[in-house]
Amino acid sequence: MIDWKLKEEGFDKEKISYLGNKFLTGNGYMGVRGTLAEYGKENLAAINLAGIYDKVGDGWREPLNAPNGFYTYLVVDGEVLKLPDVNPEVHYTELDYRNGIFTRHSEWDTARGKITFDSERFVSMSDVHLGGMKFKVTADFHADVEVVYGIDGDVWDINGPHYDKLEYIENDVIGIIGTTHEKGYKVAVCGGDKTSFPCEKKINVHDKKVLKSINFVTDINKEYVIERFFGVYTSKDCENCVEEASKEVTVALRNGYEDAIEKHKDKWNSLWENSQVIVEGDDKAMEALNYSLYHLHCIAPRHTDSLSIAARGLSGQTYKGAVFWDTEMFILDFFLMTEPKVAKSLMKYRIDSLSGAKEKAKSYGLDGAFYAWESQEGGFDACSDYNVVDVFTKRPMRTFFKDKQVHISSAVVYGIGKYLKTTGDTSILSEGGAHTIIECALFYYSLLLKRAVRDYYEIHDVIGPDEYHERVNNNGYTNRMAKYTFEEAVNVINLKDELSEEEQEILSQYDLDDLKNKFTDAAENLFIPQPNENGVIPQFDGYFDLEDASIDEVRSRLLDPKEYWGGAYGVASHTQVIKQADVVTWLNMFSKEFDLDTMLKNLEYYETRTEHGSSLSACMYALLACKCNRPDKAYDFFMKSASADIKQGGKEWAGLVYIGGTHPAAAGGAYMVALQGFGGLSFDGDEIIVKPNLPESWNRLCFRVNYNNRLYEIDINEAGVTKKELS
Amino acid sequence: MIDWKLKEEGFDKEKISYLGNKFLTGNGYMGVRGTLAEYGKENLAAINLAGIYDKVGDGWREPLNAPNGFYTYLVVDGEVLKLPDVNPEVHYTELDYRNGIFTRHSEWDTARGKITFDSERFVSMSDVHLGGMKFKVTADFHADVEVVYGIDGDVWDINGPHYDKLEYIENDVIGIIGTTHEKGYKVAVCGGDKTSFPCEKKINVHDKKVLKSINFVTDINKEYVIERFFGVYTSKDCENCVEEASKEVTVALRNGYEDAIEKHKDKWNSLWENSQVIVEGDDKAMEALNYSLYHLHCIAPRHTDSLSIAARGLSGQTYKGAVFWDTEMFILDFFLMTEPKVAKSLMKYRIDSLSGAKEKAKSYGLDGAFYAWESQEGGFDACSDYNVVDVFTKRPMRTFFKDKQVHISSAVVYGIGKYLKTTGDTSILSEGGAHTIIECALFYYSLLLKRAVRDYYEIHDVIGPDEYHERVNNNGYTNRMAKYTFEEAVNVINLKDELSEEEQEILSQYDLDDLKNKFTDAAENLFIPQPNENGVIPQFDGYFDLEDASIDEVRSRLLDPKEYWGGAYGVASHTQVIKQADVVTWLNMFSKEFDLDTMLKNLEYYETRTEHGSSLSACMYALLACKCNRPDKAYDFFMKSASADIKQGGKEWAGLVYIGGTHPAAAGGAYMVALQGFGGLSFDGDEIIVKPNLPESWNRLCFRVNYNNRLYEIDINEAGVTKKELS
């Protein structure tokens, strides 16, 4: 079995940004990068906030980082002991990902003796505005110690600074209130501490920090423990965020550190109870998988009923803190199985940002709802028309992610559809889901083209999941998903009498009979690419006419390792080499429509042509390999997906811009492979179907799932499959 | 008045390639670059043949250059006197463009005295296989002279060598027979000479040349004249091209040089009689214009009834010797007015290459006839998918000239339409024109798209005349030309009973009633962009949404002066800056459909946004300016068009590839501006309408035109307009 802990021995400057992601702690409201307490923005320290954004000048709009309430360092005999400047003799950090606790241990040999610094910290899962930290100083001599801690308002920003103004509170409870540039949001962070030994405390403000220094002289080998808390509230959370943040700290101090951490651990425990996945026979897989789920828990929006998850979770401002199709296609399933309430919040975010999607469609002369490729508050599309910089000319390149990746709206419908199918909870339709689906169908309907010489509809000029091929016609994935959207819209229209009065009132604004006819016609007559004589489905019109060069051959044509493979002239663009699963994704989602032979032929054809330039790719190959009864082939893809954050090596920098962070979609994808792939889990009406395809080394796979408002435990082991209803 | 001569004084090495074009002589069968007789391939000497092509390896297929039958140099007292190596003291060349005669005069001061070399040469307009040259040597001392002349088989090729084998004839009549690589064509060039003074003659073969040297010692100041001829035939011309080429020389020698040149001049004279344009008050304009017409005469295919004109005429292998829309849109009018038989040959070429156009359409999954963007023998499209090299990466860039510039087929229909309208000769329909038009309409019909939410047709994903904006939707020019094609096809169907039996037989294979309905529907319901609130027509969907940057601003963004302005990421691509007349071309061609105000507003809007990166652009602006009663504005554009070859400064090199040559489309465009613009010439039924708009300095404009099989002289002068029927 696994010990639910990851430990990093020693200190390596090169790993600062990687460990910042790997040792992240979070509670859905905020994510705290796994950086050391003495780090500032230059070492990518950040407390990243969910769902609140700001834009400065011509930079991208990005999520806010809060002033860092964990900021702390040690001064001994006048010498500042900060990493990475002063290396300790002994150093390790550890993440307890069962309980969301980060610990650190450092020992420095000073001129007069050894000093040891231990700390543990968490952001509370039971009270999302609260962060707690306990630290301990021990010296083997009479050290003159100053512990400096407080709140660092000099936050790391990619396109900042976002706080036009910083106000400081210098009372017993200290604080920083930042006011944002664009919308004047206030972000208040307050902090307080508790010491139970004689010491002298001073407060001062400098360099955008409010700091408290605690001075004392140590007895030999005596432990000096300090407990502290910080509270965060923003003006989006409540009327008076300063007061709330301050109260948060006062109450926590009153109840004490032990109380706070116990409640936090209890909450984690209750989460794991229904979400852990037991894998026997392969600890590495069990560890990577459950660690992936840890990350999903850290970013789940439980504190609100309408919020989604950013593509890099709460690990920073990368990818603008925006919500991509990752949520619906890769992340949603985990929450559907383990916390349907979170799943509903994710989908409610889409329903509540419908107006942004309608505006976007209108801006392109289209009808209905065209969801944002990079969705922020209100469905605003943060995606730029120029997403890539040409390495040769340093000019921004016109990309078409925003305007041509039309499959995004179908992902929203698919998400709502999965929610309905898995939870049986139709309230989501009554709360706006119904007309959201209709608006998405209207969007695709306005994209339909019919040639004068053909009797079917086509969709032209799109980008499918494979972003290396721009502006293609009849991308199979996109067309099938559009067809699905039409089908779902017809279903919703058929259900209309069962919806809430409010939703029925909204639906009465449409000519539903007319729409039903149109969508039925569209679903029946939309062109869907068919397998060729070799059983392989062309990804889009003319795909097989492209040069069939190997990935290595295509890679060898790069003149610069950083150049973009796609776009108009990229090395992959005019070849059959693709970035990520495309047809393979389609086959996974509609596998009932294909026979085994077709799935296998397409898996094999596209596998050798996929560069996997996206972390969303591997899990789709793994899933399809399982469906083709090839768990051996699936295993490496699964491990790649499950290890996206545990292993170093992901792409962290694009030129001078940090693009690293955690990979929630890969985490969610790994979960899907474990349950739906290896576990062979699927649902059919009232029935839970389990057709296992375990990797050779796995002796047991055990997990719990919510289905139709009931909780089940599935245990797959050498004796067979057990399905047990728990509630 | 003008003297019909252009003289170049002195020698300047930098002008070699420019003068090669400017002093070109030609007769439609071949073009002889205006290079000096001693030049070889390194100085771009070439005798370019019409309508015969060859391809070697991965290079482009390109037209053949014949072994150079004019090759000649002088050796005096053992010293080789060749330019550019040995500079003469006096040197000039001259082109008599009234008679198509190139002369040259050089004087060298040698160690023992001065030697003078005079030559004149022509390729016969009355006998297109014949070239004649007379040269004269004079010395002011007893020079030991060797005149070396013969045939140079070491020809200039861009993508050669094209002759796998060269055979030599070393008789009194010398010769070279080249056999081409791809199709084994034979090209035979024979040469013979006549001397009337004592001399010693020797023949030798080396360096792919067969050379005759004539040795003699000069009397002081005595003129030594040598007359010579060469004959060219290819295996495409006749069964036995070697025999024919040899006979050509023998007969010419028998009749003598004076006879040959007189017949040549008579032919030129008869051509000018009906084609010269008299401009009084502006000699510069008259010279530039008639010199332009000279070039059109030099490349007119009079020796066959089915051949077209290459975009760079017969000035070399540039642009693959291919036929572009230039012919129908810019060049055709001159021949319609002056030599309808040549005009018919141009259009017959298109009719006879219909099979190539049908194959091309089929290769793109389309119906009907998609004519070649760069048409060679049989309508083969020589255009590559990669036409531009990226200056930064040196990689070929995927361009869409071949697959998206669909307006080419409508140009063919427009050409046939103009032929019918101007000549009244419907035989062209009976000889294949009728079903050619129907096939072009079928092509556009297969391009038509209808959105599910609209009731009109659209054409997407094209390139209009402005090549800087690729893959646009509803390019106005393209859509209007497609509509025209549908209209013409309906007209042809209505006329079917008047056609030849053979053509009726072909037409019987179509369901004409069905096609008539379809084409009528298409013509009525194809979307045509309309003027916006400012009266300006968007060039394509979304054009006005592009950045409205000035041409200077866009130019200032170039990082390399040679980088391509268009393509996916060019400096112009995402701005409103366009390469060449696009909407303006449309307004010219359908000016009856627009009011003056709309024409003027569009002229002014697009004028400031046009880079004129094509020599086809200026004349369209000039024409529209005249239609807007602004001959002042038109004049500069007219002179730019008329001076394309007379002035140095055109783009001659793209990297290491020579792209220079003559500009027949600009020449034809200048002619259109003179007659249709300044002269205000148009036709309406039986009536010739003349509404002059002369530039201020022009006192008189006089020209002859053929219309409906009759010849007219139009004289516009201060007294008014005279129209006189001559035949």
From TrEMBL, chains A, B:
Keywords: Glycosyltransferase, Hydrolase, Transferase. It holds the Pfam family Glyco_hydro_65N. InterPro entries: 6-hairpin_glycosidase_sf (IPR008928), 6hp_glycosidase-like_sf (IPR012341), Gal_mutarotase_sf_dom (IPR011013), GH65_N (IPR037018), Glyco_hydro_65_C (IPR005194), Glyco_hydro_65_M (IPR005195), Glyco_hydro_65_N (IPR005196), Malt_Pase/Glycosyl_Hdrlase (IPR017045). Gene3D superfamilies: 1.50.10.10, Glycoside hydrolase, family 65, N-terminal domain, Maltose phosphorylase, domain 3. Residues 682-722 form the Glycoside hydrolase family 65 C-terminal domain. Residues 8-236 form the Glycoside hydrolase family 65 N-terminal domain. Residues 291-652 form the Glycoside hydrolase family 65 central catalytic domain. SUPFAM superfamilies: Galactose mutarotase-like, Six-hairpin glycosidases. GO terms for molecular function: hydrolase activity. Belongs to the glycosyl hydrolase 65 family. This is Glycoside hydrolase family 65 protein. It comes from Eubacterium segne.
